[in-house]
Input
Amino acid sequence: MTVRVRLDGRLKDLDAAPGDNLREALVGAGILSARNGCSGEGSCGACAVLVEGRQVNTCLLLAGQVEGQEIRTVQSLATEAPAGALRAPRQLSVLQAAFVESGIVQCGYCTPSMLTAAQELLERNPDPDREQIEDALSGTYCRCTGYEQVFGAIQTAARRLADPSYAPPVIPEFRDDLRVVGKRAAKVDAPNFARGGRAFVEDRVSERTCHLKMLGSPHAHAYIKRIDTAAAERLLGVVAVLTHLNTPKIVYGSAGQGFPEPSPYDRRMFGQKLRHVGDRVAAVVAETAEIASQALALIDVEYEVLAPVLTLDDARAPGAPIVHNGALAFVTGGPAELDNSAADPRDGEILYQFPIHADPRRNLAASVSGGIGDVARGFAEADVILEREYSGGSVQSAPLEPHIVYTKMEGDRLVIHASTQVPWHVRRIVARILDVPETRIRVTKERTGGAFGAKQDVVLEDVAAYATWITGRDVLFRYTREEEFIASRTRHPMTIRVKLGARRDGALVAIEMDAVANTGPYGAHCLTVPMNACSKSLPLFLCDNVHFTASAYYSNIAPNGAYQGYGAPQGAFALQLAVCEMAAELGMDPMDLLEKNRVREGAMLEILKCLGEGREGIPQLVYSCGLDQALDQGRRLLDWNHRQECDEADVRIGKGVALVQQGSGLPGLDSANATLTMNGDGTFMLLSGGADLGTGLDTLTTKLAAEVLCARIEDIAITSGDTDVTPFDTGAYASSGTFFSGGAALNAAREMKRKILDAATEVLGEPAENLELVFPSTVRGKTGSATYDAIARNTQSGTGRGQLVATAHFIADKGSFPYGAHFCQVAVNTRTGAVQVQKYYALQDCGTPINPELALGQVYGGVLKTIGHALYEEMVYDDAGRCLNPNFTDYKIPGIGDLPDDFRAILIETDDPFGPFGGKSISEIATNGAAPAIAAAIHDAVGVWMRDWPFTPEKILRALGKLESTSGSATRSELAAQAIQ
Amino acid sequence: MTREFHRPATIAAALTLKRSLGGDAAFLAGGTLVNSRRFAGRPGHLISLAALDLDRIEVRPGQIALGATVTLQALVDAPGLPATLRQAALLVGNRNIRNQATLGGQIGAAEPHGALLPTLLALEASVVEDDGLAARDRSLEAVLESGLEGILSWIHLPVSLGSRGAGLARYARTAADLSLLHAAVSLGRSGDRVDRPIVAFGGIGPRATRLAAVEEALADARMPDPAAIAAVVENAVDPAFDVRGSAQFKRYMAGVLVADALARAWKAASEEAGR
Ligand SMILES: Cc1cc2nc3c(=O)[nH]c(=O)nc-3n(C[C@H](O)[C@H](O)[C@H](O)COP(=O)(O)OP(=O)(O)OC[C@H]3O[C@@H](n4cnc5c(N)ncnc54)[C@H](O)[C@@H]3O)c2cc1C
Ligand code: FES
Ligand code: FES
Output
């Protein structure tokens, strides 16, 4: 049917079937900005546009419902030019510009819907307050930004609309000696997001693309006994059906880590053994999504259902079902004699690049231990010993754009348009699975609609690539929100035992930490995540006797892997809270105990020699550490020593603090490269291997180059993360972007500078030592000056030395550690168990904040996610291993109404000798503080220690004795199991 | 699969269509439920109620009449409605949904969770259901119990609570969450006694209901202390586990929420009485 509407100011006939929703009809009309974040549940708001001036979710509206109505998308916003005036077509509206400059645009997936919500608000209320903004954006989820900066963006727009000369409130800027580094600047990709432009994988898909849909296992643990795909294959429009019977048997690991990886190769594209609900049984490639779904229903499978392993206790129980009972093999370092006689061929194999101390027959996926000093002696010297166990459940990273890939052939080469953090690892892993040389494959990283670690793995790319390779067809594979919950990658549930020994005066004399992770069905990141729980928390304390063990067990819950923080949030929760508990035991103020034991500038971190990510580590010196300032400022801001009372009878107020740290990439493992080329007019192309996930990495690398080259940011165009176009980079993980990808861009810019000066000697006839670069884009000598434009024309002429091209790489043998202190104040209602975060101050040392407003956005976003994890987010499983809440109605993520009442991110400047212009990493670290700081504050308020996140009202009421405590530490999954029986 | 979309101009035409299409058709108001993945068995025909001219709010003598296709956001924005109704509409915590979902759709959906239905029960709402032959007044409770057969056209409320007061309390995980558990109470105050209490609760059992045992315990009684009324509530409800909480938690919270809503209603009634 045809639905006539006024679309963005023009009459338009939308072509739609009677059951099509408006989102589908808009996509059909070429409007891409109505995104899809929840697969038609109607709960995320990413698809919203203005219908008759009201923000509504287009996935919940039938196209027929809007007949004759006015629809405005983000594309319509820039309409403020005087009537009849011609507007530059790409000019942003006041509101769009305010978004771009405020730092509220990160991955950009939610940006169009945030903008239309804000537009609706400003049309009915030209001067909205915070509460009204909250109300206007209450239906729009954003997983990246933590929302805080949107208040400033909307209020700035409101004021500028009234008074065009209005200047936004200043944000702190850094490094007076530098021109663009440390200063506010528009994120380079933000204007395109604000216009609703093409950016994401789904925007690249051509017509006649086939759809791939996956039949997920209904069982958590089973063998496929028999599978019959004949009926599916006969269906008109089905192009291919893939199963374990007709796909490559090559074992691989999905983790996008540096080769050789410290994760086992323990999966195949399709296995005969199914290890979690949603595991791959069969894929259908068909000409439409509907046909693919119909075909899935025609596949007949007989399963041999096995008992599932769900918890760490299940996995470690004697005689537990074995999740991986395949034959083992080692590339290097395996035992001389391998006994694979008990292996079951239906389980496939496991190949280790090197030993990671695994014992799959006991479900042990990996383990490591180490330490410094002598903990037994330390505990013997201690006056007080405290031993506690801390745990956290399954949480989902929930990027608003689920996993997606689009693959196609170009000539005899395979092109993968990926939403990934690791384009080169994707190429390497897919090449291995397809058994083709890497040169046959191009991976283009598109903008990612949120990644957070989940897109550090090859989750979809292998199967889509294979489908394209064998059929020659374009293939689109996109997860639904439910699949994203049950079959992507997320945070490992972990149980961490901490034992501390302290002297009366508070000196920590021994620390023992035992982190045990539930890796789920496959071992991607299974060694390094629990190890990181130790390596990013133990070095915060200067203690001579430290011992740790880290291990991971296989199970049949949803797959776990990387998620922002990478084990550090779990480690920080355990160790920071244990130190708080120790303070209580000692009768000390926790801040005094932290002060007495914490890391400081100049300290040597001996413990790092045993925490080397699958290789030998090295002790490291702390060259910069902003904790002095962070603790001092935080203490004053929160009025730490003042006990706050509440007028409400049932409400108690408490305060908490936690120290946090992370790394800046992996020295000795990571490597980044960048190339700068000079264009014919003296502008530049920057080709960076780095993968910008919405974090602002492209802006950062561009700014570094602009700084060195004395050029305007606009005169440098960046392309990043494309294996055909840009040089190699290990990828965006382990907080490596600023340090490594930034370092490579900086080195390339320095090399370009050298080349420009060298070329200018010819143009100006002066020796290089007389020349300097001056802004904008000029070489000045003692007698004259030349613009880059002139230099470019000279070098690129028929007699010139050739185009100026500079390539550089960056590696490091030393690390730079970002530090921070997170302070919070909570109000706990002792009758309802509700916890209200009243104040949250995250004070972060990231060295030189290169993009200050984007750095703040990273902190707000990281903190808010983890406030959600600490208070209410949790995937709940029944006893058959089915996730009971794989959607945004039952699994809540924070919305704009869930911000702390007073939420501040504060950047503490330090000067780091290694990072680019002194910059250190910023994003992951922000996720480490919320759980321990909130748990400490809850204890301060009501005297109970919450040692298992999330701290739901139900658990708080149990801890307070208002509800009976269930036997031992009953988890929700156990509760779930009881109820379902 | 929806094959056809209809937009009749009158209630009679809508009902004729529905009758002729039978089970393969559904009425469509805002569509936040009907068009969502949650709606079972996609009907072949959808009959939109948008052209029925029911998106009006009329304050008549002695009565407030709310058209069935009035959106929840319109309830929030309209002047002159009871404060608790506005508050409850706002507790549908997501503006995008409030811009689209209708009051009639809330009642038609009759979902167990949510703030509005218990609140409407406490405010003694009645509804007009049109079956094509006649428009009859029905109590909201009866409609929630047995469902709608015709078209719900109007929702009626007493124009003011008189000297009565109303109060709400809810449990939700996040600000924009559904009210997973919701208590709504209205009452009058005569001296130090509770007069004609109405206690409604949502989130336990299949639909929002009044808690008769609790109303009985409160009627003509002095305001009980919170623990005492909570104990009565805990006895009166029989929650089941789901992913949103254990039965024990829900039972306990039901007591707390009713006690809180009761205290708020008592305060409001006392203020009314003091006027
Ligand atoms: C993301 C999301 C969040 C939500 N949050 C909340 C919340 O916080 N609190 C809450 O209470 N609810 C919430 N809801 C539920 C929502 O409020 C209901 O879906 C909505 O009220 C239904 O109204 P509608 O107009 O969209 O109804 P529709 O979807 O059009 O219809 C719902 C049902 O009622 C029938 N119907 C509708 N109007 C009439 C009529 N006049 N006569 C007869 N039958 C009729 C339809 O046939 C259908 O069976 C949420 C829903 C979504 C999708
Ligand atoms: S896609 Fe429409 S609300 Fe999520
Ligand atoms: S910027 Fe909002 S979801 Fe990424």
About this structure: The pocket of FE2/S2 (inorganic) cluster (ligand 2) is lined by residues A 36-38, 42-47, 57, 59 (CB under 6 Å). The longest helix of chain A spans residues 737-764. Chain A touches chain B through 57 residues (CB under 8 Å).
